[in-house]
User: Which sequence fits this backbone?
């Protein structure tokens, strides 16, 4: 038995349609108390949409709506689920919710519908977390990765690793029970080798940086001295006139961030103040912020003025270059500059020359093409996978040091349990509650 819960399942505010969802025992009777079909019907068919009216306790019409009943187990929660689709807007949705609550439903807590789907075995914990990442995905790469997780990508990956760990634990158990039949040194070599192989696979599938970029986007900062064309380049890359462009040095005083998409990956592109020594107190703050943004960026576009030779300020920036940097010589349509060999690419923000190639370089420098293949994107799953990998590496090290296989099994069990936390098989109540507390109400 599950008490019925209800919530508005769509975003609040004006819209064409709002959905009020009810799940649990009695969902059908609650629907029949709040909804009157326009045509006379007998028993409601499951998964069939009906047109009619939302009605009050006296049978008076409150709104023109559509309604559907989804009988268990063919529903999101594997319980009886009823949904009323009313007109969007706060008043209509609120009235529909008030009506179903008056008929016996209780207000749903954050993520309670998805939690019921998890508790009823429809999805595991990694898939439940993927639901919210699908909802909050800010780019196609994030959406693709989240959908793969929702379809069980992480579950299959973790399940495969756990199966191999089960086999290794069975081998250790057999070597203890049948020492005359199983060569312990050979078994130890196999356990150590496979433990390291699984650990390597887990670390490859839980790339923290790649996962962060998929979830949150890639941070790209334009850096350079004043008047090299950083703001013009931002406008060219975004296809807008968001940044103010003038010939006056020091126009940009703060970090200005715009979002673009490259091959489905979200890119947060930031224009910064020109880096130079200055006595202007406001500009000095802007320069400090520019340097801070540069230090934390995933990719740094160092912009040089292609119409002029390199200056001391240019060379100071170039001396800081590392693997994140792309050296961009702007104003390629003008002459009089230094050798183009100073740069990775020559562009003209004014004419658009080289802009598409620069977008490609940003994508390649960040490895965006591979980001969509990241196995895990959730911080909790990544932490569990890293914990499991560490335990497996300790198991292999203990075997190499000549410790008994029984000692290695302790670390193997720790790894197995850490992986079980990802899918929820070995997750405690506190972990499960913490996951669903992050959800919005109605999902």
Assistant:
């Amino acid at each position: 038995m599950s008490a019925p819960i209800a919530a508005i399942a769509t975003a609040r505010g004006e819209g064409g349609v709002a959905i009020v969802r009810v799940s649990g025992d009695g969902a059908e009777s609650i629907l029949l108390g709040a909804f009157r079909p326009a045509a006379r019907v007998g028993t409601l068919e499951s998964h069939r949409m009906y047109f009619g009216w939302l009605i009050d306790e006296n049978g008076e019409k409150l709104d023109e709506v559509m309604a559907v009943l989804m009988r268990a187990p063919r529903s999101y929660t594997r319980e009886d689920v009823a949904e009323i689709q009313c007109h969007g807007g706060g008043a209509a949705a609120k009235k529909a919710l008030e009506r179903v609550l008056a008929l016996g439903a209780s207000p749903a807590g954050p993520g309670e519908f998805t939690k019921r789907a998890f508790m009823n075995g429809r999805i595991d914990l990694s898939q439940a977390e993927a639901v919210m990442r699908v909802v909050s995905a800010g780019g196609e790469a994030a959406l693709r990765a989240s959908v793969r997780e929702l379809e069980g990508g992480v579950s299959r990956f973790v399940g495969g690793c756990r199966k191999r760990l089960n086999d290794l634990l069975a081998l250790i158990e057999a070597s203890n029970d049948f020492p005359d039949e199983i060569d312990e040194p050979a078994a130890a070599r196999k356990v150590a080798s496979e433990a390291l192989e699984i650990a390597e696979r887990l670390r490859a599938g839980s790339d923290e940086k790649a996962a962060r970029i998929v979830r949150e986007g890639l941070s790209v900062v334009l850096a350079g001295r004043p008047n090299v064309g950083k703001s013009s380049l931002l406008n060219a890359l975004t296809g807008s006139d968001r940044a103010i462009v003038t010939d006056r040095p020091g126009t940009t005083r703060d970090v200005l961030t715009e979002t673009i998409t490259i091959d489905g990956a979200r890119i947060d592109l930031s224009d910064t103040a020109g880096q130079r020594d200055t006595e202007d107190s406001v500009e000095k703050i802007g320069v400090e912020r520019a340097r801070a943004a540069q230090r934390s960026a995933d990719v740094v576009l160092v912009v040089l003025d292609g119409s002029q030779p390199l200056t001391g300020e240019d060379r100071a920036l170039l001396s800081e270059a590392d693997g994140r940097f792309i050296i961009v010589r702007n104003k390629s349509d003008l002459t009089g500059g230094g050798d183009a060999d100073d740069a990775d690419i020559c562009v003209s923000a004014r004419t658009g020359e080289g802009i598409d190639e620069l977008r490609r370089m940003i994508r390649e420098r960040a490895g965006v093409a591979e980001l969509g293949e990241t196995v895990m994107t959730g911080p909790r799953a990544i932490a569990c996978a890293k914990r499991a990998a560490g335990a497996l590496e300790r198991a292999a090290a203990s075997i190499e040091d000549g410790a008994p296989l029984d000692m290695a099994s302790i670390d193997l069990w720790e790894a197995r349990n850490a992986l079980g936390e990802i899918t929820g098989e070995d997750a405690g109540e506190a972990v499960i509650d913490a996951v669903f507390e992050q959800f919005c109400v109605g999902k």
Summary: The two ends are 21 Å apart (CA to CA).
